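Training component of the fellowship. As part of building independent skills, the fellow (R.M.) carried out the full modelling exercise for a liganded target. The chosen ligand was flavin-adenine dinucleotide. The inputs are recorded below so that the supervisory panel can assess the work.
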Amino acid sequence: MDINFNADVIVVGAGPCGISASMSVALNGKKVVLIDKSQYAGSKNMYGGAVYDCALREVFKDEVDNLPYERIINSNSWTFLNDTGSFELKYKDNSLKNAYAIKRFNLEKWMIGIAKKNGVYYIPNTKVNDLIKKDGAVVGVETNLEKYYAPVVIIADGVNSMLAKKLNLRQKYTPKDMLLSAKETLKLDKKTLENRFNLSPDGKNGVCKMFFGGIEEYKDLFMMSFLYTFKDTIMLGVGASLQDLTKYKLNINELLDKIKLHPDISPLIEGSRTIEYSAHLIPETGYNKLPKLYTSGALLAGDASGFINSIHSEGTNFALISGKLAGESALFALENNDFSQSTLSIYKKKLDKSFILKDLYSYRNVIDKLHSRSKSLSFYYPKKIKEFFNIILSADCKSKSKHFRKFFFNFIKDRNIFEIIKDVFAFSKCALDVFFGR
Ligand SMILES: Cc1cc2nc3c(=O)[nH]c(=O)nc-3n(C[C@H](O)[C@H](O)[C@H](O)COP(=O)(O)OP(=O)(O)OC[C@H]3O[C@@H](n4cnc5c(N)ncnc54)[C@H](O)[C@@H]3O)c2cc1C
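Fellow's submitted model of the complex:
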């Protein structure tokens, strides 16, 4: 059959990745259709709270000056929780303008507005059920309403990418490859929030806090929690390995309920009211389980490809830039009127040159290593840090040397020396991988 193409490019998924991909196609005067299953952009999408200036500017240029953000995040802290307290590293720089706290429905609404202004044809409320193929190449999509045809389809349908599975682009994922996260949006009186977190009313500063451990009953559970301040709301969430949740037969909301009661977290959210609850998967497949990123007539980008660095809470930037690169690769294929696998392989070359595959490569073992040492991270070292500081701070009329010696001997005694060596190896391996990168 001869195909009557409706567009030059079809993009599936109107998250940051799909919107960015469609923008780069439309900006070059090509006809692009952007399809999303949700009723309005961003209504079902979920994250912690930070979107990054650099990636936004790469796609939306000076329009970013009008981003309807709620706060600029310029105070970051990393806290190791023990049962009764914590050890915290904090960095604040009021001149930082690197990350914005913005709700997802506002982010996607803003991005879609600009995309439409630039000629993107956006179709909401429409689920893509399948891909249409001709002679082995993807030539369109089949939705719950009708069929659309284009010589290139960019697949940006998120972590569960049903379309990547249909095309056999990715390997079978296991529970170890996924983190599950639950988040509450907590409403708090604006003045109280500003006083509590030392924030100005104009939104020019905001806080991001990361927490490790804090729930001692699950000693080797790999989990992290996060807190972001918005104008008059707080986002508090927790993420844990799906494998560990299965092992402990735990619901992610149970972890969130428990972490809310921690003595270091409960005062931060005191007096707040839950106005929204959401949960989402985070892909941890990384470089070691990189999917096939292109095939004849199709490209895969964003979370659908596992492009995320959860150690740094970076995902939207990977999505925006991989979307842009996918869009540019589609344009290259259109210019050459060749939509074969070999022409579309330019996408992989672009990704190789970008921070995306460089970072995924250098962090390829980090989550796995941290996961394998989660008992140390979430339980053993926070406990030891607590003991150490109790010594330093205890003016108990006893010799400090005696305390330090006792601490040292307990440190060795409480933990098999081989476990300590394994920790040192694991953490050094991560640090060296990241330092030398690619
Ligand atoms: C708890 C949590 C916290 C996070 N925190 C941060 C953070 O602070 N900063 C950061 O940068 N990143 C963060 N991330 C990661 C970030 O949210 C993702 O990396 C990013 O949203 C990926 O964008 P995407 O466009 O690839 O996918 P998504 O944003 O998931 O968009 C996919 C889109 O595809 C649509 N779709 C799916 N299937 C179909 C279909 N069959 N037909 C039509 N449409 C379809 C969906 O409706 C959706 O709109 C976090 C993630 C989680 C889960």
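The panel noted the following from the submitted structure. The mean pLDDT is 94. The CA atoms of residues 76 and 91 lie 5 Å apart.
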